[in-house]
Design a protein that fits this description.
The complex is a heterodimer of chains A (about 500) and B (about 375).
Chain A lengths: L1 E12 L2 E12 L2 E6 L6 H8 L7 E6 L2 E3 L4 H6 L2 E4 L11 H5 L6 E2 L2 E2 L1 H14 L15 H13 L5 E5 L7 H16 L3 E5 L3 H7 L2 E6 L2 E8 L5 H9 L21 E8 L6 E5 L4 E5 L6 H8 L5 E8 L2 E2 L5 H6 L3 E4 L3 H5 L6 H6 L3 H4 L1 E2 L7 E2 L2 H15 L15 H14 L4 E5 L7 H16 L3 E5 L3 H7 L2 E6 L2 E7 L4 H19 L1
Parallel strand pairs in A: 3-10, 3-11, 6-9, 9-10, 15-22, 15-23, 18-21, 21-22
Antiparallel strand pairs in A: 1-2, 1-4, 4-5, 7-8, 11-12, 13-14, 13-16, 16-17, 19-20, 23-24
Chain B lengths: L4 H9 L23 H19 L6 H26 L8 H17 L5 H26 L3 H23 L4 E2 L6 H6 L6 E2 L2 E2 L8 H17 L1 H11 L1 H5 L5 H27 L2 E2 L7 H10 L11 H20 L4 H31 L3
Antiparallel strand pairs in B: 1-4, 2-3
Helix pairs in contact in B: 2-13, 3-8, 3-11, 3-12, 3-13, 4-5, 4-6, 4-11, 5-6, 5-11, 8-9, 9-11, 12-13, 12-14, 13-14
The chains are: A alpha/beta (about 500), B mainly alpha (about 375).
């Protein structure tokens, strides 16, 4: 019996068609997997289903009746519970209060603490969780918090439960516990949607699967028992030969590394990280969410403390104090994964967004007055013109606000400031998240060209095809450690096998 | 693939996007003049002045009305610039008035105890203001506590400290020593500045020169210098600024130090125009300090400032105040009108943000 259906859903964002006629059907008493690469539209679809986004086309059906949700509150009341990828517990409140947040029991207008305790205990009991409802959520472990969120989603009497990457940050043991809960929910006749990057989990607990690619559903409600793992991967990434192929570059193996890490440990939990990037080389840093890749980049920039080991730039042991130091002294740039918050200044002009790293160079003395120097607007505009042309950024004028650009153009602006600063080592973090296929190809070519021009590039991405297109070597990280390294042979099948094996090496030995 | 990479790059870089609409609003450079907020303000100021002039011809009396009005506008513009400096990084300075009082206390001590000249005393005051502002900035940068809270706490601290110092050091809660030149600075206008036989207007007070200097310096910083750009970038997004190599912690301190320095200058202008240095200087600064910049288009959230706007916003409130006063409106109703103006100004600020967001979304 179909419990819930999203039919022909369209969702448009500036510059990107995030969902294009996606259909998802959830059956009662069944676990349905939603798969796709990063940026394929999984989270967007969940946000549409829960009423966080309004769809630009298509309709939602609950029990065969068309429904419209104006807010997550409305979808929750209709019986759709969700656990988002981001943590959503409110710190400072207890476990019980968080679970019952959407309908706190009251008596005479006041919150009834006794009933919070008893009702929350009931939901926790249903999940076989031994957690005190009066405990502040800040004292929970990550996995406990995850399970409490599920209890919270269940507490609204939800018949449909959406789990967005619930296992991304928990250990295998804790995941097993979660799966038992999912099984129980399924046997109760509820419908569970399970989003995960970990295919082995999907094959373990799911019955049917919908695969998204670039915002469209390429497989709708296929039975997982009829599919092999490879078939699913092919569906997710599209046929391999469709991808952009770039000529090979040759990197002199004996060239002195521009950036070299030996036994590096950080305040954010990295231990014993070894890494070398030579000029003209693209080294990929692969791992699942939470593996500590971006954190490593930020430690290299001096934003977090390096507690052990040595970082060498051009052979010299260095202590990088902050981003300014990294940029001015060591010529290291960092293109952040968080474009909107850390990459571009949305409310500032494109000109300033690019010139921000080079004002020192552009400054001129004001007459002969000592200390008084100014930044000529013309110089600022001129430097922008260079990069607008080189990167193909589409703007109406250099004074246009960066926030009015499409995602792809914003990303180019975010990259341009490091090129303007003439950095020699570039750390590029998830460059193409939320960017459509064609712009993606443009970016890949661009990054390839930069390496061909002698830059040392450390590429962080969770997008395996992107990694295989670009990287010369792939370094695999897990739990803030380097698990191994694979030389890229540009063959998707062997590469993905080797990389996945490295990621799961520990798990297999433990099991 | 046999084509050279640079060519494929150019081909691939041609994104299949709809053409980008010409940017609108601030920074776009294509805003029609009649939609420009500053020009709207200018027209409003001129029109209201004309209206008040017609209703009460005394409004144009040079000595009795225009001279003190311009002196007020000059002073409150400097107060506005003091607030604008911290608004540029998205912060607030609730202690702007008390910083003025603190600086003038130091200036008063320098006149009374050390017998400093008028301008040496001003300099000491500016240094004191800069220092107290920098202290506020340092605490904010160091602790990460919201500027609202830190400056509020500082305000209370100074509220207690200043009268205490006055009670210890003075007889009547005011420093009585007036350095030579102070009275002249209060009363002189451009009529006292002559080149040959041509003299300036008696309506323009000489005291206004401080506002002009402050506007030129602050305007230069924000439009021309690297420092100003770094402040604005910090105001737009601290994270992005930090990750672009801008020393954001130092910029927070700079912005608050500038604010303190300008507050001290405004305090000095008030001390000169009232002729006394007392503990209550700057008490009425806080509200107008926000009015001027925000009416003039400075964003509360940070990242955009307007020096001209601050002048015009201040002029508008001062003209309304003076005009209503001449029309015989009581003090209470006058404040009601001013409160309404502030409310409308703040809502407009929010409305503009929403509007520019929507335009961003509608772009595809």
């Amino acid at each position: 019996m179909t419990l819930f259906e999203a039919e022909q859903i369209d969702k448009l964002f500036p510059g990107v068609r995030a969902l294009d006629g996606v259909t998802l059907r959830l059956e009662a008493g069944s676990v349905h997997a939603l798969l796709g690469e990063n940026g394929a539209g999984k989270s967007t679809l969940i946000k549409v289903i829960t009423g966080l986004y309004k769809p630009d086309g298509g309709r939602l059906l609950l029990d065969g009746q068309e429904v419209q949700f104006g807010s997550p509150h409305e979808s929750a009341s209709a019986g759709i519970g969700v656990v988002h990828q981001e943590r959503n517990l409110i710190p400072g409140f207890t476990v019980g209060e968080n679970i019952l947040l959407q309908k706190l029991p009251t008596s005479r207008g006041l919150v009834d603490r006794g009933r919070i305790r008893s009702e929350a205990a009931r939901w926790l009991g249903e999940l076989d969780l031994d957690i005190d409802p009066d405990k502040p959520v800040t004292e929970l472990s990550v996995a406990q918090a995850q399970l409490v969120e599920i209890a919270k989603a269940l507490s609204v009497e939800s018949r449909v439960l959406l789990l967005d990457e619930p296992t991304a940050s928990i250990t295998p043991n804790e995941a097993e516990r979660l799966f038992r809960v999912v099984d129980k929910l399924k046997n109760d006749g509820r419908s569970v949607l399970f989003v995960s990057h970990k295919l082995e989990e999907v094959f373990q607990i799911c019955d049917t699967v919908t695969v998204l690619r670039d915002g469209a559903s390429v497989l709708e409600s296929g039975a997982l028992s009829d599919l092999t793992r490879d078939q699913v991967v092919d569906l997710m990434v599209g046929r391999v030969h469709e991808a952009l192929t770039l000529p090979r570059r040759t990197v002199a193996a004996d060239a002195e590394p521009l950036l070299e890490l030996t036994g590096v440990g950080t305040a954010t939990g990295h231990t014993d990280v070894d890494l070398k990037v030579r000029p003209g080389e693209i080294v990929g840093l692969y791992g699942l969410v939470g593996a500590g890749r971006s954190e490593l980049a930020k430690a290299l920039l001096g934003l977090d403390r390096i507690t052990a080991g040595e970082v060498r730039v051009r052979g010299q042991v260095v202590r990088i104090k902050n981003v300014r130091d990294a940029l001015k002294t060591y010529k290291i740039g960092y293109v952040t994964e968080n474009r909107k918050e850390e990459g571009v200044f949305l409310e500032q002009s494109v000109a300033r967004n690019i010139a921000v790293t080079v004002w020192d160079r552009l400054r001129k003395a004001l007459g002969h007055v000592p200390f008084l120097r100014y930044v000529p607007k013309k110089a600022e505009t001129a430097i922008v013109a260079d990069y607008v042309e080189q990167l193909g950024i589409r703007i109406a004028s250099p004074e246009q606000l960066a926030g009015t650009l499409s995602g792809g153009n914003q990303q180019k602006v975010s990259l341009a400031k490091w090129l303007a600063a003439k950095t020699e080592i570039l750390i590029i973090d998830e460059p193409t998240v939320g960017i459509d296929v064609r712009t993606k190809d443009a970016f890949h070519t661009l990054i390839w060209d930069l390496a061909a021009n002698g830059l040392a590039i450390l590429l962080i991405t969770s997008d395996l095809p992107e990694m295989i297109t670009l990287a010369d070597r792939v370094v695999v990280m897990r739990d803030h450690r380097v698990r191994g390294e694979v030389a890229n042979d540009h063959d998707y099948d062997t590469m993905s096998q080797q990389v996945i094996r490295l990621i799961h090496a520990e798990r297999t030995t433990a099991a | 693939m046999s084509a050279p990479v640079s060519e494929t790059a150019t081909a691939a870089l041609q994104e299949p996007e709809t053409p980008v609409e010409p940017p609108r609003g601030r920074g776009g450079g294509r805003t029609p003049w009649w939609a420009n907020q500053r020009i709207g303000l200018l027209i409003l100021v001129v029109a209201l002045s004309a209206l008040f002039g017609i209703l009460r011809p005394a409004f144009f009396n040079q000595q009795l009305v225009v001279f003190p009005l311009l002196r007020d506008i000059a002073m409150f513009t400097v107060v506005g610039l003091a607030q604008m400096s911290v608004l540029s990084i998205g912060h607030m300075n609730l202690a702007v008035g008390r910083m003025a009082a603190f600086s003038m206390m130091i200036t008063g001590i320098s006149y009374d105890l050390w017998h400093f000249s008028l301008y040496a005393g001003l300099l000491v005051g500016l240094v004191a203001g800069t220092a107290i502002g920098a202290l506020a900035g340092w605490v904010i940068a160091r602790t990460g506590v919201n500027s609202f809270v830190v400056t509020l706490a500082l305000d209370f601290l100074l509220l207690g400290l200043i009268p205490l110092v006055y009670t210890v050091l003075t007889d009547n809660a005011a420093f009585v020593t007036k350095p030579p030149g102070m009275r002249e600075l209060r009363n002189y206008s451009l009529a006292d500045v002559c080149i040959g036989n041509v003299c300036g207007s008696p309506a323009v007070p000489q005291l206004a020169m401080f506002a002009v200097i402050a506007m030129v310096v602050v305007g230069w910083i924000y439009s021309r210098s690297k420092l100003g750009r770094e402040l604005l970038m910090t105001g737009t997004s601290v994270k992005a600024a930090e990750l672009s190599g801008i020393p954001t912690a130092r910029r927070v301190i700079t912005a608050h130090a500038m604010s303190g320095c300008l507050a001290a200058l405004a305090g000095f202008m008030l001390a000169v125009s009232t002729g006394s240095i007392k503990a209550t200087i700057g008490e009425e600064f806080m509200l107008p300090s926000f009015l001027g910049p925000i009416l003039g288009g400075t964003l509360l959230a940070g990242g955009f400032v307007s020096v001209w706007g601050t002048l015009l916003g201040t002029a508008l409130t001062s003209v309304i105040r003076k005009g209503l006063d001449l029309l015989g409106v009581g003090l209470e109703s006058l404040n009601i009108y001013l409160g309404l103006i502030l409310l409308v100004a703040l809502s407009t600020d929010r409305f503009r943000t929403v509007l520019s967001d929507r335009q961003g979304v509608r772009e595809r």
